[in-house]
Amino acid sequence: MKLLFIICLSLITNLMASDNNNWVELFNGKNLDGWTEKTKEGSFRVEDGAIIGTAKDGMGTTFLCSNNNYGDFELEFETKLIDNKLNSGVQIRSRLQEPDGKQKHPAVYGPQVEVTGRNFEKNQSGYIYGQAWKTWLTPKEDKKAHQFFKDGEWNHFRVLAKGNQITTWLNGNKIVTTTVPAKRQQSNPSGFIALQVHGIKKGTGPFQVAWKNIKVKELSSAQ
Questions:
Q1: Which GO terms describe its molecular function (predicted)?
Q2: In angstroms, what CA-CA distances link 136 with 110, 163, 178, 204, 206?
Q3: Do the domain assignments include residue 160?
Q4: Does 20 fall in a domain?
Q5: Residue 136 in 3-state DSSP?
Q6: CA-to-CA distance for 165 and 111, rounded, in angstroms?
Q7: Best label site of 142, 178, 180, 183, fewest CB within 10 Å?
Q8: What is the pLDDT confidence band of residue 99, given thresholds at 50, 70 and 90?
């Protein structure tokens, strides 16, 4: 009986270790290796083990993008709005659209996990917005206001993207499972992960947002 217990404990330990080994740290806490700011320049830096994004007057929206693409995955990260007037987000399965004649920079498009400091009594962080599609992917009837986002503190997000289903959690609270419309799923079955610094009005800012403990675990079709 004792031998059976030891064998079972060993199997459980090995399974847990295997699961932990599947996680990949996207941010090493020291520099921006593995990331590229693709739409603008100079808005991101590393300070005290965190990525700091700065929204500057007249800069517009910019993104720090992972160099690798991801399709089905589990993502975890922590974020803090240093200035709660700032709106932000984390892109998943996102891509670049080359600029047309009116644009100076390529546009990032794809699903975005909303991170907002606006209205803490009726917060919408964790819902899915369609960046550059100018519409929410989470249906209006599923967007229920909550108070899970903590002002001035680190907030833990978990994102599970599997097929056309994206489920989000904020500080341990499930926010929503969003079914991505077929057209959007077809155009963005995979893509980069990106940190957003939202553009701000002229004469305001600078405003800052921070991220740390960013890690991803890719999922196979069998999971």
A1: hydrolase activity
A2: 11, 18, 10, 26, 27
A3: yes
A4: no
A5: strand
A6: 11
A7: 183
A8: confident
